[in-house]
Amino acid sequence: MKQKQTTQTQPHLRQGSSLAALLAPGDCAAEKLSESDYAARIAAFHLPRYDEIPRIDLYMDQLIGYIDEQVGIIAPTGEKLLTSSMVNNYVKQKLVPQPQAKKYTSSHVAYLIVVCVLKQTYSIAEILRLILIQIDTHEVSRAYDFFCTAFEESLRTLFCGKLQQHVLGDWHLEQPESCAFALSVSQAHTLTLERRLAIAAVTSAANWFYVQKNLEFMQAAEDA
After folding, report:
1. What's the Cα-to-Cα distance from 198 to each of 8, 31, 97, 99, rounded to whole Å?
2. DSSP conformational letter for 52
3. I want to staple 126 with a disulfide (CB 3.0 to 4.6 A). Which of 42, 122, 161, 191 is the partner?
4. How many Å apart are CA 92 and CA 111, to the nearest integer?
5. Distance between CA atoms of residues 179 and 158, nearest Å
6. Close Cβ partners of 52 (under 8 Å, ≥ 6 residues apart)
């Protein structure tokens, strides 16, 4: 019998990532950090942009490990934002496209990162609606990258009181004077409704994480 030949494709990894980290499940959510250490992590927090997501198809365990590495820092201590049963449920609810031959693409990764960020504050039906609104008016890659920047900088305004990036899509972000509860967008009156919804969604998600994390710090101080 003639042996079938396979071709291996090298993954495209963002700077600082390793193939081992991609293939092995991460454990960021289980790590306990001090308040100052957590703020430092948020200052350096970076979600992979669409063209930074590995360009190889992933099996379920690889998918879970990679996404946990990206979003584990925003998970409640000791909890996982994503499991295989969650992924299967999202596929059944048509929140995430069906995998092909049990493999997940960069598009699946982008969808699931958005879900992990929003699911603490919005229902599955609401998240699906928000996603559809964005991709009806923008390419998936552009909508996803806008989402990532808005979420990262929303967290930084809350935990750090300063921005790392000052450009959000076609708009400029103003540097806050101190910790703030929302992004300040120059020429905000020119934002489309779709962009306003995206910013509002990540703002509410960031504020939820801020409240939860500070409750954890307060409880830890009381228990000490």
Report:
1. 37, 30, 21, 26
2. G
3. 122
4. 14
5. 5
6. 12, 13, 14
**Alpha-carbon torsion 113, 71, 36, 30, what sign?**
positive
End-to-end, the C-alpha distance of the chain in Å comes to 67
Residues composing the chain: 224
What kind and span of H or E run contains 137?
Answer: helix 124-137
Please, what's the b/e burial string for 95-122 (b: 16 or more CB within 10 A of its CB; e: otherwise)? bbeebeeeebbbebbbbbbbbbbbbebb
- Residue 168 and residue 170: Cα distance in Å, rounded? 6
Please name the residue that has the structure tokens 């103003």: 174
Handedness of CA 125, 130, 133, 134 (dihedral sign): negative
In tens digits, what is the pLDDT along the chain, a chain of 224 residues? 334 343 333 344 443 344 344 444 444 444 577 888 999 999 999 999 999 999 999 999 999 999 999 999 998 888 899 999 999 999 999 999 999 999 999 999 999 999 999 999 999 999 999 999 999 999 999 999 999 999 999 999 999 999 999 999 999 999 999 899 999 999 999 999 999 999 999 999 999 999 999 999 999 889 88
Q: Are 217 and 198 in contact (CB under 8 A)?
A: no
